[in-house]
Structure formats: structure tokens, C-alpha cells
Design a protein that fits this description.
220 residues, alpha+beta, Immunoglobulin-like, 5-stranded antiparallel sheet, 2 helices, 12 strands, elongated
């Protein structure tokens, strides 16, 4: 009887590890290159690098690496501070804050703003709508230096009630000698939300947004 042996040959798979070249080098890699250079250079050759220069290069590299680590830590710290600021700002939701800006926020036919004068002045307000059209001229008479609260009933020059919304205010403040008196304007808004825009904490009040740096005062 004749017998035969059948053998099967399975394909042999070999794995190779591909190394991707890197354009960067860390401190350990630099030290390895430095040691390799010291081992292979000819100390009698005039072309050999000065050992002092190599030490200076190593020191410079170490300083650069420390700077990079510092930048990384600062970026992480900034991220943490932004999160902390957002958490603290969340406590402002529902509160009324005073922010810098020249406008009347008309609501239910009533609006108010704060005018701070550097000296006594005769004041006139010009109110404009969203299209830049003047809708009301409001003479305020002589006001004292310091903080003054000014109100508006939301009526135009013809006595018509205007719709609620934001209206721009231009301030004319004239001193006794006819010169312009410097002034700053602010108004109160109710915070309705907190968000982060471009890495900065921003407060929302209706359809408007304000930076934390815009807040002048927080009402209880």
C-alpha cells in the first residue's frame, strides 16, 4: 500500500515596525547626540568643537525646554482661571449690574441711565433709535458734578410712545464758560446668562453681551 503525506504550508507573516522620523528633539535626545559627538570627535583636530561651546548649547537647550514647560503650565492655569471666572460669574445670573455705555434700555415705557460729570454742567440728551435716527431731545438743565440718575418715559419729540428696546444716547455737557465737560455714562441691566467667547467670560442681558470688565457695580 502506498501512502502519501500531504503537507500544507501556511503563509508566514512578518511584522515590521515603521519608525516615523521626527522633526523635534527633547533633552534626552540632545544628551545622546552630545555623548556621541564626544566619543567620536578627534580632540587633536582643530575642527573639533570647543567643549565650552557644547556646554553652552546644552544650557541654552535646557533653558528653552524650561520655557516651553512654563508656557504649557501657564496655558493650563489660564484655562483653569477661565473656568473659575465662569463659575463665579454664574452667580450674577438674575442680578442687576451697572455697565459702561451710552444708551437707554426702554422697558414698559421707562428707562434710566447714570451720568457722571467731572464738573457742574448744562446737559442735553439726544436719543436715537437703532437706525441712528434722532427720536427725542431731552434737556436736563444744570446738573451737579458727580453721579446723576437720568430717566426717560420713552416718548419721542411728538409725544408718541416708542417701542421697548435699546436706544443710543448722545450727551452734550457744557460748563459755565461754554467749554465741554467730560462725562461717563452707564446703565443697569439684568444678567440672564453667562458664556465663554474667545476664551473670555461674557455676560448676556437680553440680546446684548457684556465683558466682565464692563461691569462697574453689582446691585444686591
Amino acid at each position: 500500500m502506498q501512502t502519501g503525506m500531504i503537507s500544507s504550508t501556511a503563509p508566514v507573516t512578518t511584522s515590521s515596525k515603521t519608525t516615523t522620523p521626527s522633526n523635534t528633539i527633547d533633552k534626552n535626545g540632545f544628551l545622546q547626540l552630545l555623548v556621541a559627538q564626544l566619543k567620536n570627535q578627534d580632540p587633536t583636530s582643530s575642527s573639533s568643537q570647543d567643549p565650552n561651546a557644547m556646554v553652552q548649547q546644552l544650557t541654552s537647550f535646557s533653558t528653552l525646554e524650561q520655557s516651553q514647560q512654563t508656557n504649557t503650565l501657564l496655558a493650563a492655569l489660564q484655562s483653569s482661571m477661565t473656568g473659575l471666572s465662569q463659575t463665579q460669574a454664574a452667580g450674577l445670573i438674575g442680578k442687576t449690574v451697572e455697565v459702561s455705555g451710552s444708551q437707554f434700555n426702554l422697558s414698559s415705557g421707562s428707562a434710566a441711565m447714570n451720568l457722571n460729570l467731572s464738573a457742574n454742567a448744562n446737559v442735553t440728551l439726544t436719543v436715537s433709535n437703532a437706525n441712528g435716527q434722532a427720536v427725542a431731545l431731552l434737556p436736563q438743565g444744570n446738573l451737579n458734578a458727580g453721579s446723576n440718575t437720568l430717566t426717560w418715559n420713552g416718548r419721542d419729540a411728538n409725544g408718541n410712545q416708542l417701542p421697548d428696546g435699546s436706544y443710543k444716547v448722545a450727551v452734550s455737557a457744557t460748563g459755565a464758560n461754554g467749554s465741554q465737560v467730560s462725562n461717563t455714562v452707564s446703565y443697569g441691566v439684568k444678567v440672564t446668562g453667562v458664556s465663554i467667547q474667545n476664551g473670555a467670560v461674557t455676560l448676556s442681558a437680553g440680546n446684548a453681551s457684556y465683558a466682565l470688565s464692563d461691569i462697574l457695580k453689582i446691585d444686591a
